[in-house]
Amino acid sequence: MLQDPKRYTITAALPYTNGPIHIGHLAGVYVPSDIYARYLRLQGRDVAFICGSDEHGVAISMKAKKEGITPQEVIDKYHHIIKTSFEDFGISFDNYSRTSAKIHHDTASEFFKKLYNEGKFIEEVTEQLFDEKAQQFLADRFVTGTCPKCGNEEAYGDQCEKCGSSLNATDLINPKSTITGTAPVLKSTKHWFLPLDQYDGFLREWILKGHEKDWKPNVYGQVKSWLEDGLKPRAVTRDLDWGIPVPVEGAEGKVLYVWFDAPIGYISSTKEWAEREGKDWEPYWKSSDTKLVHFIGKDNIVFHCVIFPAMLKAEGSYILPDNVPANEFLNLEGNKLSTSKNWAVWLHEYLQDFPGQQDVLRYSLTATAPETKDNDFTWKDFQARNNNELVAVFGNFINRVVVLTNKYYNGEVPAANTFSEVDEATLTEMRAYPAVIAGSIERYRFREALSELMNLARLGNKYLADEEPWKVIKENPERVKTQMYVALQIATALAVLSEPFLPFTAGKLKNILKLDNSFGWNDINTKTDLIKAGHVIGEAELLFAKIEDEAIQAQVDKLEATKTANKAANKVAAPQKDLIQFDDFAKMDIRTGTILEAEKMPKANKLLVLKVDTGIDVRTIVSGIAESFSPEEVIGKRVTVLVNLAPRALRGVESQGMILMTQNAEGKLVFVNPDTDGVGNGEVIS
Fold first, then answer.
1. How many whole angstroms from its chain centre is CA 7?
2. Residues 6 or more apart from 56 whose CB is under 8 A from it?
3. Taking residues 354-362, what's their average pLDDT?
4. Are 158 and 140 in contact (CB under 8 A)?
């Protein structure tokens, strides 16, 4: 681990531009990386916080075909949505670029050509999976099949998400094209491969020995597992029509593999930033006194800890990441987040329902961040954290301090008199928090860091509750000046230390306290007076608002509607039964009828005893629909009846026919009946 680096290069995984951003992305990558970058800036560090849209690969071209637009239109649409979402939630990138930019095409092409000219690739004609119906070679993510390691039947062509194994598409058992659903065939094609097996020793030395103590166990464990499985050469080119053309002769119709080109996007985005800011980009990627940190989700560990480092090592002039603090997955209400199934909380939709409450979501996602294992986001927990923590603890403390300062001193910070032991102890404890929170952030324990920030707010609340200035003011107003001075120091500390976690709240609080932006992280424990006597603050303003049950129920209902829609969309019809002859069908006498009477069968939960007018007669039919309908609901219902079914005694009642039913997407029974008025009882269905 690099000690006291001169500069920091922080990268956040490039989001793929085939859809908007949801809370899983925010919790897993972008809020943690933003906390880290904001904290370092408050420390006065030289920071380049880099990201951009990942815009190549077959998924983009397939989405374009599906929507009837060009790939460029797809990436332009989602690049704008994603970039705006990041801005709306205060993700403070120094540069947000895109891999379709010319600077990226040039950077990736030059990187490839350097390795190509130095003989770092293996050129091979291999058999690749080809979809004959779609007439195209299949990229890894467009092949699914059975994982040869664990038997998962839904493994992708590059990775099994169940056991974490890195795969090639040709490794899959019973592969299937996700484009057409057909079984692909093998077809010869020429590609260039990075011989990862040649970097096995380097990776073992660098990660397994060099980072055993400081990398997260989930990251270290995955890398160790891949290395123990044995590394194989991996293709860096693909047969596609959308991407960066392979810049060598004989490579027509081929592009750079998206996972070769995408991480180079960090470098090209840094170049773009440096060019705009009049800086030299190279120290941020090539100087040994630079700390490089990749923030990613666990599904990208292999690319950032094995493939990209091998690429950088092969090139020879780049530094390697000091850490890759990958998070696990965030689930939503007990189910895996899914873009395709719309099982997500989309950031742009969240702000429509909770305008101005970005920090509430940032807080909730940080407090439940999947740092060491998969975690679950629920709307009830979101509500509880807002109401019981942000409103009741943080907001309550600030509101009391500001209201009392305005009430007693017209907003002017009072001069302190003699400090009591409680005052001294409280200020000493306050000054310890920057180091405590920093220690957690430096070890990428953002949940822990946030908890310590809230402990500082609790310290302020406890101090006011114990000291009770609203009571003391009557008998000892001089003592209250000291109490309010101490409370205002804590409020100022919160305004500074909350900024990485709650940037919008910190901005509001600084505005209320009339603070400028000159405060740094370490001022909290080095300055005697954070906010000086005589300084005038502003009026009280609520930092957080209580979230009512109705707002939460609306979100739960929205997810339930999504679940119902998914069931309907994914419902598979029962297979067709064996063929019958027309004479078999003609034997059935199916007629329209009306239910006249209904009652529950005694001691039977599922059965209703019905009187049905079949047009021929009024007969008794016993039907197993009592768990779906009450007797009152079915009286007067038009129904379809199989009238010539042989009578059958059910619990001593003779049933003389069968009511025809089906089910909707939710599994609820539905009567099969005529959809046109004026059809009388007894009409024959043929």
1. 29
2. 99, 100, 242, 243, 244, 255, 256, 258, 261, 262
3. 97
4. yes
